[in-house]
Specification:
The complex is a heterodimer of chains A (about 130) and B (about 290). Chain A has about 130 residues and is α/β, with parallel strands linked by helices. Chain A contains five helices and five strands, in the order βαβαβαβαβα. The longest helix of chain A has 15 residues, at about 105-120. The chains are: A alpha/beta (about 130), B alpha+beta (about 290).
Chain lengths: ~130, ~290
């Protein structure tokens, strides 16, 4: 079973993803965190394979969060799911993400992106 | 008691005065143009900032709305497949649940496409040239300017396999909107008053990429053809045109992109404006914004 962590400050986005990916429940354990700190707590408690994070969040933002993830858990796949269109916000994310998805992202695309990350991470789980 | 030489002096002074006046007029016109351009740039920047903020605000609810709509569509069809059929009313409900879910997803996807086009269009980074897909700019422009032409014309789009160009997406989009708005006005103002056609085509012409916008409007009368690119020249009533659209468009295409903007017009048949932009050389290196 793969572990996927989703971080977004809008609870409805998390609920939408949870419902949309409900069919994956047999293969994936999905954890939902309302902010970066809750996300880091979750990462400290279990081994995750992929993290999907929003960028603009109060407190620690997504780029800072993913930078910490890259540093502490380099083997974890990092995907950005953001509604932001500003170059400066996205530019910071490029350095710390394996993939950047724009909101709104259809469930099928999100699933495909996570699956791709899982597949490409497997041969070398801890190297980047 | 004027001596003959005083006449020469007076004439000379008058000429100098005329010259000075002419130069002053030219400089005032140039200054007015520069001010108009600056106002336009500032407006675009404000609109761009607002649009980026609005896009972000809309995209978040769109994310959970689309996910939820997809979930509903699937779940409803699953539930319906399991439930026993209880007569003709049921059949109607089943059918309409399916088509209503499809419509819900389609509507939300369309909103998403409009937001995407709007943000493509109002990019605020100034003076940054990047490698551009002209066809994508055409498509975004047609989405954001749909309300300008939808009621007066059908649009035909023929996108050629064109190489990329080096340029500023917001500025080129602005030029295209100008041309499409002008085409719509030309059709709406044509004597026939009937629904017209706007054709937008992209093509390759040697080492240039061409974008043409043709309308079936009334055409540009011979008498004013050499004035249409002049700043503040307009044939439209107050409030409809500022007389800056084509002047700015030409400045953007020529000065900022090294291209040309020209037109051909036949009175009674319509006008075609053609933008020609140099294709980006293969291997051109550019800095992403």
């Amino acid at each position: 079973v793969k572990h996927i962590l989703f971080v977004d400050d809008e609870p409805r986005v998390l609920r939408g993803i949870e419902r949309g990916l409900a069919r994956q429940r047999a293969a994936w354990t999905m954890v939902f965190a309302p902010d970066a700190h809750a996300g880091l707590d979750a990462l400290g408690l279990a081994r995750f394979d992929v993290v999907v994070s929003d960028l603009r969040m109060p407190g620690m933002d997504g780029a800072a969060f993913l930078a910490v993830v890259a540093d502490r858990y380099p083997g974890v796949g990092r995907i950005v799911l953001s509604g932001s269109t500003e170059g400066i916000v996205l530019a910071r994310a490029i350095d710390v993400a394996h993939a950047i998805l724009g909101k709104p992202c259809p469930t099928a695309e999100l699933r495909a992106c996570i699956e791709h990350r899982l597949a490409s991470a497997e041969p070398r789980p801890t190297s980047e | 008691v004027t001596r003959p030489r005083d006449g020469d002096l007076v004439a000379g002074l008058r000429r100098a005065l005329d010259d000075a006046e002419r130069r002053l007029e030219q400089e005032q016109a140039a200054r007015q143009r520069a001010e108009a351009e600056l106002r336009q740039v500032r407006t675009l920047e404000t609109v761009g900032r607002l649009a980026a903020g609005v896009a972000h605000e809309i995209n978040t609810p769109l994310q959970f709305a689309i996910n939820s709509a997809e979930f509903l569509a699937e779940s409803v069809s699953e539930l319906l497949a399991r439930a026993p059929d209880a007569g003709p009313d049921d059949a109607w409900l089943r059918e309409n649940c399916a088509s209503a879910s499809e419509m819900l997803i389609e509507g939300l996807s369309r909103v998403a496409a409009i937001v995407r086009a709007m943000k493509d269009f109002t990019r605020t980074e100034r003076a940054t040239h990047e490698i551009l897909d002209v066809n994508r700019i055409v498509e975004s422009t047609l989405v954001v300017s749909a309300h300008e032409y939808r009621h007066v014309a059908d649009v035909e789009v023929v996108l050629g396999a064109v190489p990329p160009v080096l340029g500023h997406p917001g500025e080129l989009g602005q030029v295209l909107v100008n041309l499409i708005v002008n085409a719509s006005h030309a059709i709406a103002g044509a004597p026939s008053g009937s629904r017209g056609r706007i054709a937008v085509r992209t093509a390759v012409d040697g080492d240039r990429v061409t974008i043409s916008v043709s309308d079936t409007g009334g055409g540009i009368p011979e008498a004013i053809r050499d004035k249409v690119f002049d700043a503040f020249f307009t044939t439209k009533e107050v409030g409809r045109g500022t007389g800056q659209g084509l002047a700015l468009s030409r400045a953007i295409v020529m000065d900022h992109h090294g291209g040309t903007l020209e037109f051909e017009s036949t009175v009674g048949h319509g006008t075609t404006f053609v933008i020609k932009l140099p294709a980006a050389a293969a291997g051109t290196v550019t800095r992403a914004s």
